[in-house]
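With this grant's support, we have settled on a layout for protein records. A representative record follows, to show the layout.
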Amino acid sequence: MLGVRHHGPGSARAVRGALDAARPAAVLIEGPPEADALIPLAADPGLRPPVALLAHAVDEPGRSAFWPFAEFSPEWVAIRWALRHGVPAHFIDLPAAHTLAWEGGEGREGEGNEQEGNEHEGNEREGKGEENTAADPQRADDGRDGAEQARVDPLAVLAEAAGYDDPERWWEDVVEHRGPGERDPFAPFGALEEAMGALRERYGVGGHSRDLVREAHMRLRLRAARKEFGDEVAVVCGAWHVPALRARTTVTADRSLLKGLPKVKADLTWVPWTHHRLARSSGYGAGIDSPGWYGHLFHAPDRPVERWLTKVARLLREEDRIVSSAHVIEAVRLAETLAALRGRPLPGLGETTDAVRAVMGDGSDVPLALVHDRLVVGDVLGEVPESAPAVPLQRDLTRQQRALRLRPEALERELELDLRGDTDAGRSRLLHRLRLLGVDWGEPTRSRGSTGTFRETWRLRWEPELSVRVAEAGVWGTTVLGAAQAKAESDATAARTLADVTALAEQCLLAGLPDALPVVMRILADRAALDADVGHLAQALPALVRSLRYGDVRGTDTGALAGVAAGLAERVFVGLPPACTALDTDAANEMRAHVDAVHTAVGLLAETSTATGSGTGGRAGGGVDGGAVTGAGHGDLRGRWRAVLRVLSSRDGVAGVLRGRAVRLLLNDGELGSEEAARLMGLALSPGTPPADAAAWIEGFAGGGGGLLLVHDERLRGLVDGWLTGVPAEAFTDVLPLLRRTFAAYEPGVRRTLGELVRRGPGGQVAHEAVTPGFAAEPDTGRADAVLPVLRLLLGLDGQAETADDNHLVEVGT
């Protein structure tokens, strides 16, 4: 009986030494028996830890459980020893078929469905929006499962008895930092068995009631192995279980505990795992704080502290920190001194961390964060060979990853794609298809360079639970393309709002699903014809217009999309003015967001039409199936939209925030001069306007980057300043939140400049001050001329003959 702690390098070394000494005829390992057929794959060089056994219910792939293994896991060492010596190896824990059914909510006959089992990460049921946890067969052994009722932590009890206040430190001192004795390789296991036996006598199952069922099954499997192989059998399991497996029970009693267990059909395979997921901070119950440190302890042939601190020094040098050999020597001395002062047999992670902070980090914790992420935890991702069982969708995904040179990695990284190239375009389609299937390997992010539609930026990170998502998505098809197409059609049928359908149309274009687009467009046209809510139409239009632009770079026929977009725009133009009247504050702010979105969409739609020379719908008549209305042409959309904005800017029943926003948009487009804008602002801020309405008008006009308007237009700034100083004291408190929200959104530099300009007052001088520091009476053209070469270079004019545009550059420089 080799009682171990999961993922412990000291336990792993002790198991290897005990097996070498005992040479058993068979090795029994804690784990799901259905995985026996997968054990031979551990000899494949392509199966590189960390890996995990993944079990999922065939009829409900989202119901799943993992059994992780690292190179320093005692169970993995036992499997590799058995394969290397040609010895049969078998898993003996409760079958995954029972574990998944039990945790999935299917009660046992004659019992309530108790949910006090050991939770395990990675089991989420997206369909119901709830987290479904499956039993973690390794968690109870460490006694840290965080269940509702009080449970015994074996390590904490033993550490307290030994005078330690930290169970982890006690375990490292007595096991992880000490190998098995040279004379008696079984001594560590005998001591642990005796300690756990005393704990089981005192606390029984220690609150882990489900362990009774698991241990009954393990005893039955042990009896069967002894009948087949005799007493030369080694059992590698959690130390907590050893006393129960030694107990004298009858076969009848054990079978009675297993009677009536629920059962589902389960499939098992190997999947890649990561050191991040082995870390306890990730939520995995039988995890460890420092998998990278434990891996180092397991592989270091000698002098582990010196080797570890050398790794730390190498990492810090790569990050351009000055770390010399003398730093390493002093850090080793300090770590050893700290261990001696603290009564430890060997410097542990705490001592080495303190030494790194003091010697290599100059007392700062900043480099420690890097050391923790890259070394203490690590970013190692395991690998699984192609010969491992997998759903057809996973095989197709693996093939495409290899063809596109898009390797899964545990470390988060950014990927810049240029969609004009075939490889990057294929990567984009694959990532978008996976997102459509709920496999969020990549997350789109804002590009730091070009903002064109030919460029995409993704943030990639492969998480082990994505293997579960792939298994779940396998119900939609056997290939990524087929599954994504089927999922898109199903989502379009089940979509609840028009905006959901337009977003789905956008996803179909991004994912390159031309066969799914007709179904989505038919549903979109039907929804658009029946939906009379202007807010819904306004929400749907931007995504549809963006899709037109995506179609250009991806070579997709977007004629049908153009027709629907034009129809939606026309209906928004007609219905928006009535929909903007008699709104309360919250509704007005929501409608303001719709107005901004439609304004941007109309501009893009007109640009797309100009660039492509298309008509309304891209096909004869410009009509759309389902009754969506189309207009005369995209070229006149801007004019009709501006007419709508003029109506909003002057209609009395429209909320102030919307009227102010309409004036601002017209001013930005050059449809209003500053004189006209000042006139409208003067009307809105007249004494007859309630202060709250006037403040809302200012919020609509000046919000969202409007500070620069006030900086450069003295008349508008004077109107706002004059109104603000004239607000009655009793009303000022009411309008202050609106004003604070508006001006707090400005950049600090804009706020500072506005304050200085207001302080200077009309005419540019401050009372009691002849000249304000930093401001001259006239522009300094000499300093402006010095900026011209740089501005010409930035604007792409470098090397060209000087033109009249230099006059504008002089103004910009000034």
